[in-house]
Amino acid sequence: MEGQEPSGRSLLLKRIEAIDEENLTYSFSLIEANVWKDAVEKVTYEHKFVPTPEGGSICKRTSTYYIKGDAEINKDQINDVYGKKTAGLFKVIEAYFLANPDA
Questions:
Q1: Whose CB among 16, 17, 37, 78 lies 3.0–4.6 Å from 27's, allowing a Cys bridge?
Q2: Other beta carbons less than 10 A from residue 37's beta carbon
Q3: How far is C-alpha 74 from the geometric centre of its chain's CA atoms?
Q4: pTM higher than 0.90 for the full model?
């Protein structure tokens, strides 16, 4: 099947763009994803972790979509595909740190 591995799973390739430990930032790009293979060249995600007065942190994320030509993408599709995955990832990370406060 086009855009899928032989197992039928979605194809997704990532590239790390930058890691800045001092400023608590990192960015990566999705450079191949069969979800938008004809519409999007790449998507870059920039993350910045900001300390809170309570001792925790807030993660601020900016997403930049590089659209091919006159292609259009549906914002609902973005939320369905990546919004849910991101929310799930942060829930797993939060659960880990709550269970391991000294980590």
A1: 17
A2: 12
A3: 17
A4: no
